[in-house]
Amino acid sequence: MFLDFIIQFGSSFITAFGFSILYNIPRKKIIPAGITGAIGWTVYFFLTAYLSTADFLATITASFTIAFVSQILAREFKTPVIIFTLPGLIPLVPGEAAYNMMRAFVEGQTVLGVEYGTVTFLTAGALALGLSINGAVFQLFSSRDLFKRGTKYVP
C-alpha cells in the first residue's frame, strides 16, 4: 500500500514538474508546483483506489486540495495562484477519456463516444467546481472583516 502511494506521488510529481518547465514557471517555484500536482493526484488515488469514492467526487476533492495548497504556496512565495494551480491540475485532466471519445466517434461507435464524452465533461466540470468552491471559501475567510461588503478580493 505504501509503495503504491510512493509510485503515484512520484509519477504525478514528474508530470507536474515537467509541465511547470513547459509553462516557464520561475525556477524557485517549479518544485513546489510539482509537489502541488503530486498531492492532488495522491488524494485522488487514495479516494478512488482505497475508499472506492466515485470519480466525480474524488476529482472535486482533489481539485479543491490542489487549489487549497496553491493558495497557501502563493501566499508563501508571494506569487499568483495560477503558478501552482495550473501544473497541479495537469495530472487530473481527463486525457484518456477524451482520446477514447474521439476514437469511438471515428470508429463509428456513437454510443460509446457519448459515454466517454460524458465522463470527459463531468471530470472537467468537477475540476472547475473544486477550484470554484476553494475560491469561494478563501474569499469568505481571507477578509479580516466578514461583514465588510464591497471590498475587492485579492489573494
UniProtKB/TrEMBL annotation:
It is found in: Cell membrane. It holds the Pfam family ThrE_2. The keyword Zinc does not apply. Keywords: Cell inner membrane, Cell membrane, Membrane, Transmembrane, Transmembrane helix. The chain crosses the membrane at residues 6-23, 30-50, 56-74, 81-99, 119-141. It is a multi-pass membrane protein. Residues 11-134 form the Threonine/Serine exporter ThrE domain. The keyword Cell membrane applies. One of its GO terms (biological process) is succinate transport. GO terms for cellular component: plasma membrane. It comes from the Bacteria. InterPro entries: ThrE_2 (IPR024528), ThrE_Dicarb/AminoAcid_Exp (IPR050539). Belongs to the ThrE exporter (TC 2.A.79) family. This is Uncharacterized membrane protein YjjB, DUF3815 family. The lineage of its organism: Bacteria, Bacillati, Bacillota, Bacilli, Lactobacillales.
